[in-house]
Batch of 3 targets.
Target 1
Amino acid sequence: MLAQGAIRFKARLRMCGIGSKHTLRMTPGDINRIIIIGAGQAGGEAALRLRQGGFSGDITLIGEETAPPYQRPPLSKKYLAGEMDLERLLLRPASVYADETIALLSPVRAVWIDRANKRVRIEGGRELAYDALILATGTRPRQLTLVGADLPGAHLFRTAADADAIRPGFVSGARLVVIGAGYIGLEVAAMARQKGLDVTVLEAAARPLARVTSPEVSGFFLDEHTAQGVRFLLGGQPALIKGKERVTGVGLADGGEIPADLVIAGIGVNPEITLAQQCGLRIDNGVATDASCRTSDPSVFAIGDCAARPMAHYENRMSRLESVHNAIEGAKLAAAAILGQTQSVETPWFWSDQYDLKLQIAGLFQGYDRMVLRGDMADRAFAAFYYRGEKLIAVDAVNRPGEYLGAKMLIQSGRSLAPDLIADISRPMKELVAAAN
Amino acid sequence: MPKITYIEHSGKEHVIEAPAGQTVMEAAVKHAVPGIDADCGGACACATCHVYVDDAWLAKTGEASSMEQSMLDFANDVTDNSRLSCQIKVSDALDGLVVRLPKSQH
Ligand SMILES: Cc1cc2nc3c(=O)[nH]c(=O)nc-3n(C[C@H](O)[C@H](O)[C@H](O)COP(=O)(O)OP(=O)(O)OC[C@H]3O[C@@H](n4cnc5c(N)ncnc54)[C@H](O)[C@@H]3O)c2cc1C
Ligand code: FES
């Protein structure tokens, strides 16, 4: 702790222009200036991890949003319901960045990367030099390319500003059409029903959560939402957003219309890779990196939603994950790589809250060939275990935290449990995990 | 405002004023108390906000819900005093609460 204090003290002196540079080097390879582009969960975390790891040089965190780094998950949950304010949403109090001598430039957009000269240009033309650069630019929601998509009352959903714009119309009795039945769309639908809105979900696929879970688990959530009064239009295509001054409905490709006061589209996201492409970094769905989050340029790292890296527990398959866990882990990995430290990786995990259902997911289910259910869906507490061959690869646990954490530990350590054992609900999960090999 | 004392594994103490309504986890994170990671931000999904509630306060902090208890079953170094701090709401009745932090959250 003492050493840490001394390092911080030096960093402060340096901010004041006192102290000489060469006494401050802590990192291998002469890294004194680190720039992070994107002040979201991954970028904010990376800045703090670098300080915690002992980095004493300059850290500049560039973010185009007004607020300092904040959490997005509550946006479609408590924040939308008005049960949480922006201050509680912040990952750390705004003062932390100054305390840790992290220069937070916001709202400022980075507009150009010159890798040859290791410089980043920000709007207005100023250029900043870096020794190491971290891209943490996240994703952009896919736009609705429909006539009327720009009418007041029609929204995309990614930022606190989006949620703020939605909140005034998110009131009892309002007619809401949610376009897209992914996690965010379903969370919004659940919150809307709890607030007394009239809700229709329009989804192009044949089932909700089609990209992210099995047909069985999709079916469970479809039934739950239907029982809560949500109408579903599956296989439905919106053709235009109707209205003159503001939204009055959604016109369908088959000629039908759903009346609406509010339209929220959650039809997926694209990684924000404009700068990475502009400067010629290798792209593979997101900014491609190695297991330590280093891109095709050894001085540039990419983390969080914008980046794809090999997954340790999945034969190093390149994956771009969109989750809090992945944002935090990328931040830890990049900070460790820059500081010449080691960092272990965890089984990927995710959660979603809908009504009184807590869905907790460990692992990546893609490529499963067998699903085994533990518990009964009718009890609203069950876990779906996904296997590829004999190997357990993922779990979707609904109101079953033990199964979630147990499976997460098993996947982490490369262990499995025979499907017939997993299905035996009379044996506690803890006991099964202890006996697994 | 209720005061909460967080004692790091090393013994270092942090006394923090926490507004009623916040959770014991949030108050720690807002004041950058090391040793509480709280990766999921209080969604009861990560178990990285584990604390030990001092004996004297066990009755006042109440019992863990079954959801929380199941999460704790899989945490490291769990004792009868273990709680997830994101599940303890600060109130005037908890003024003076003392919680200790585990060696590690992972
Ligand atoms: C409504 C919602 C609910 C969610 N719920 C969950 C959940 O329950 N569980 C879970 O695990 N995950 C959830 N997620 C996903 C999770 O929030 C993201 O995976 C996480 O925020 C990714 O962090 P990031 O830092 O990579 O990206 P972001 O948080 O998107 O941050 C990227 C930042 O970079 C900025 N930026 C981009 N380009 C530039 C530039 N050129 N210059 C300056 N700034 C730039 C962007 O404006 C943005 O602020 C949810 C997401 C949303 C939107
Ligand atoms: S903060 Fe994640 S479980 Fe408490």
Target 2
Amino acid sequence: MTQTFSIEQNFQGVKLGDQALKKHRDHVMTQTKATGHYAGIEHFSLKTKDPILYNKMISRLRAGVVHARETAKRIAASPIVEQEGELTFTLYNPAGDALLTSTGIIIHVGTMGAAIKYMIENGWEENPGIKPGDIFTNNDCSLGNVHPCDVHTIVPIFWEDHLIGWVGGVTHVIDTGAVGPGSMTVGPVQRFGDGYQVTCRKTGENDVPLKDWLHESQRSIRTTRYWLLDERTRIAGVHMIRDLVLDVVKEVGVETYLKFAYEVVEDGRRGLQRRIKAMTIPGKYRAVSFVDVGYNHPDVNVPPYAKLNTIMHAPHEITIRADGTWRLDFEGSSRWGWHSYNAQPVSFTSGIWVMMTQTLIPTEIINDGAYYATQFRLPKGTWMNPDDRRTAHSYSWHFLVSAWSAIWRSLSRAYFARGYLEEVNAGNANTSNWLQGGGFNQYDEIHAVNSFEAAAEGTGAGAVKDGLDHAAAIWNPEGDMGDMEIWELAEPLIYLGRNVKANSAGYGKYRGGCGFETLRLVHGAKDWTMFFMGNGYMVSDGGLMGGYPAATGYRFEAHKTDIKDRIEKGEPIPLGGDTDPDHPEYEHFMQALEVKRDKQTMTTETIFEDYDLYLNYLRGGPGFGDPLERTPQQIEADLQGGYLLPRYAEKVYGASIYQDDQGAWRVDPVQTKKNREKIKQERLKRGRPVKVWMEEERAKILKKEASLQVKHMYASSFQVGPRFYEEFKAFWGLPESWSLTEEELGISSFGQKYRMGVEQLPDVKPLVLVEE
Amino acid sequence: MAYDRKKIEELIDGTIDWETLHRMLSQPKDPERFQLYVDILQERVHFPETILLPMGLHLYIVQKKDGSRVVKCDCGHEFCSADDNWKMYALIYVREDEESLNELYPKLMAPDPSWQVLREYYCPNCGTQLEVENVTPWYPILKDFEPDIEAFYQEWLGIPVPEPKK
Ligand SMILES: [Zn+2]
């Protein structure tokens, strides 16, 4: 029997029972596929017939969703939510596609949608049942959640006895009971150490959380007070939005509301296509990014099979077609690994919209329409689409923000070519360091910390101006470093300094924004550990059109210091920034049993005692254009503001500098011009024809001369990216016999051959939302 | 909304006022920008070929009299055919030891060359640094941008690709 479909069927609420919800979503998907328009909407009926009402509904619902976020935020006690705004609310249609979202960590437009779709596909309708007043909680990474600390509260919206939509709310909780404290801990190498995870569990009925859930969840995590208040925040927000939707339905009627709930997604899909045509150039764009995973180090305490230095590899090819649709292909990406930086496809595809709202689609209407206008290819087995259910994800962002930085460069080439220079951005900073840890705090409570000072990194340089200093983070465009006084209340760590980090920005005609650094003194902590999390051996962003990438990270920590004695005696102590790490000064103002100053910026729990020191260095952004084109005035300002160490003004910018009578830095423009001519001559002398250089590099490849981490990256990319392997060999003209495998590297074989995906569990129907 | 020529010149020169720049960022794009932008760039370069598309801060895809398309630096240096990767015809300098990287960053803030190297690409004529790549050793040289000039002009701008100048 052939079933006939009508588009109108999509605009009704769903009376649950007999897999009605699943059939509804199937219907929407079938029509989308058949017509190329979301839910088969080739012609808008509401938007065309009553554009004023349509736009009013957008404004009213969007304002309501934003308002719910602002109001609910006040309930939370966690500074991550309350100070940094790490929460988001999103409204969905019955099929689980997002209509409208609030501000905040809008990566969750897709991750909460994936949770709803998972419930639909896996028969939640029958068991455990979906009823008015139900509350579902999810933070399961294998469903697409970014990391376990992003906890979703999802409620259905019913009008009479029909389901007419869903609301989701998410907060970034401060701890989820992983092997180490903090929300994005270093140390888990499998899901089983990644923290407490719940899979779309019914945790409330009749709008009230169930007792078993409250008791169990509190026992599973460290920071119980924040946990409970975060949940109340989410529940309050989703209920406010549910009430708003019901008010709107009362006014416009359920049919109009539902029409709206689908048309707005199609509108979003067409909006992205229009925007791509308005801002870019059709064609192909390629770029690559990397980030280091330095786990073969004594300060990284992980199982032996995970003790390996390796590199995340994320090359992309973006194809913008003449019709304004686009395809993002990540062929060649490295395999997933035994660390907590793996990502699920949904967090990858959904997270990209966080970035796009800062560039390509800076609009209020960000919804799943953008997803339907985009084709993603994330090869199975890569770090962004793992084929094993054991993978850990607690700091997926480490790889995500690094991978996306290259996308800025590709888009910026389009903007530049088109003359929209105001949109050019060389990239985003690596959003680290993450100061995390826990133990007993200054109030004698079990506690965990995750300093969101990382929400204020340097931004990338543009084609018309410098990046912003210590200003933002890619994952939350509203970023804020937070008040020191608030962090001191939340953490047993006193500030001994908060300064601009000199030379952290990438140089260029326009430089990236500088990051900053804070020096923290442990005070009032008991049984306390902390660790570092960020990039160190590599930089993950890249310069554009002659600009340099930002600086890498490094770590500084000091243990068993004499600072207590010094304070008592009134002697000087380390204060302010670690201004020039080539000539460190902190060590002149203290004695310490142990100082660690190195590039090992990933560590696991280390014991910290009172009067120990921890340097939190937040990274800078990449630069744009040849540094020799930077104006003398800008270099003077850099020197005066502490953004640049004087010797680099000379070496990198070719500036001739001196200090005037008042001690202010000056640049001599005439001499600078001469220096720059000389530097250009030096470049011509030291530069070699690319084809000559390639012969030497090729010889190294033939002899397999490279560090183990570099070879491991290639071997794992070759395994899951056969096309990348062929292209690599063709580029270097390597003989047919040349190959590089993980087996020959003499490292642990865990994960190389034996893998098992979540879809192999009984009764599990996974969602596949990308090309694999 | 459209902007006058002077504002676009200021945009190119980085001297534009914040108010106008903010308007450019927050309002819908002005579709006539491309033509104005290319006209200004054409006036500023000293070579006779027609600019079809700016490729980078100093690079252009230009059309020669015979109709062939090449990549040119604004100093006049001709790199290669527009289909080819200009980087393959540049001068390269690779920073792959601590000393050369320390010329750019304090030691602890520079990439470790056993993980990552810096490749600087210079114009062989004027010595301008046109691109910097931070990649692992062995990394193939990527072709960053392959524009579809025909589709862009004809389908998106709705104008023909400029004819070769006689
Ligand atoms: Zn040149």
Target 3
Amino acid sequence: MSAVPSPLNAPKGRPMSTSMVMDTAVVFGRELRPVLRNPFSLVFTMVQPLFFLALFGPLLPDVPGGGSALQWFVPGIIVMSCLFAGSTTGSNLQFEMQTGSHERTLVSPLRRSALIVGRSLKEIVPIVGQAALIVAATVPFGFRPHLGGAVVGLLILGVFGVGLGAFSYTLALASKDQEWMFWAIQQTLIFPLMLLAGMLLPVDDGPGWMQVLSKLNPLTYVVDAERALFGGELASATVAQGAVAALVVAGLGLLVGTRAMRRA
Amino acid sequence: MNGTMIRTRGLTRHFTVKKETVEAVRGLDLHVEAGELVALLGPNGAGKSTTLRMLTTLLPPTSGTAEVAGLDVTADPRGVRARIGYIGQGNGAAHSQRGRDELVSQGRAYGLSRTAARARAAELIASLDLEGVADRLVSSLSGGQRRRLDIAMGLIHAPDLLFLDEPSTGLDPQNRANLQEHIAALRAEHGTTIVLTTHYLDEADQLAERVIVIDHGQVIADDTPERLKADHAGDRITLTLGHERDARRVVAERLGVVAGGRVERAGAQVVIETDGGARLAPKLLRGLDEAGIEVAAVEVARPTLDDVFLNLTGRSLREESATTGEAA
Ligand SMILES: Nc1ncnc2c1ncn2[C@@H]1O[C@H](COP(=O)(O)OP(=O)(O)OP(=O)(O)O)[C@@H](O)[C@H]1O
Ligand SMILES: [Mg+2]
């Protein structure tokens, strides 16, 4: 170590003020950097959805009318990978809470809201990246996505992922240093949500109570919208409902997330 | 910069753990002037970190007020945050990131432009000897390298007021010495006000010109290390005598011991605590010689802050954890 460098480049005296957008950009950039430095890490969170695809796909009967079962199944798997990635992301924050780096960001002048918004926005990147990879992997097996629909589908998925990420971070903030609590709640919620959204099997033929719960699950609308969009159905009520569901989840997530961060 | 940097009035923080109230900090009245270098010294659980966490806006006080860099911590926490630096007890740099990336985003968080943040990060990497490891994942760094990175993070925006929670924990002696130089230079060259906590008595002694001793959430002493030692502990003269019976005689007859000095014996060793030990020792030896007592060895030691702590609380700071462990 040598002498402390003179703070030529550092602001002296009056601290510089930053805007909410700048704060969010700083947090977003910081969160994204490890993903960009190691894009291969995306592949790992995808392994599970791909297993579902490989081991479930062949069991599905072909849709009457000649459509491939993949046409129905792949959009569900894409939402599933979004669900896995988005809901587990809070564990990264929890780890940073344990090591002390979260505390460091709390002492910085970054706005509390930017800490959650920037982190949650970053979820869009791995989610869209994974979705694109799943599409690329299934096209050779006969999946035929509609291009325009897929683009809108990924957009809705990104918005939904922001909300999921925000909820996951909220859960991390609420569980504090109890890692088991984070995972217990995440696991308890994710599978019912997934199954009740008709992600793997249609719920339409299920008992009445199941259909009611399915209707209350915002994920159902997202999954239905993704199926419609990837199938080329762009302007429909199903798509609109999916978009609204994603926006509501994102809005609520960021709201509770910001409140949790303010209390942290 | 002149004037008051920190002023607290009755600063108090309670925690409730399993329906029991822990009074971590009890009515702290603190006043730190700009440019001071203050060490908070105290055993584990004394309330040092809790105090720093309140001053850095991480924890709301249960009661009392704190003004930091001219702003109230509860009324304007963001204003306070922009004006201070904080190096916590944990790792500021996330384990999943690279050191340089963390330094740059830390600079950006404080409003530096991308170019300025990069340049400043490079300066600090060089001056904290992190060149070889700054572009590696933080998780792959050694504890001491990580600690140095944390320190670089805290210095990125050259704050006027810097808080350090046990900065030297985990550093080897050489890096500890370097860190102390860094801290001293920050103050000398940039006039930075520094508040640090430490368990290391010698660190507080060498570095700080003001030591605040905290125990059970309260200030029990607050002065320069020299004055603390002069007021609360004397020099120690350790005599090793030829025979235990000689030692007994020295204690019983208080041979050569000035009035008011404290005397203790262990085996053939006698420890005399007194002021002006260096002046007294030759006289003492002469007196013992005249009484026909043979002295095998003599040692005069200046008091340490540990002696001060012992005097103030009846407990040794050094063996705090060991003795409480045994008592449990
Ligand atoms: N979040 C918390 N919840 C409950 N109790 C707490 C919390 N933080 C601190 N305490 C308690 O408050 C007291 C003071 O803790 P603090 O961390 O301030 O001590 P310290 O002086 O920094 O100790 P150390 O030298 O071990 O770092 C301790 O009894 C501790 O158990
Ligand atoms: Mg502490």
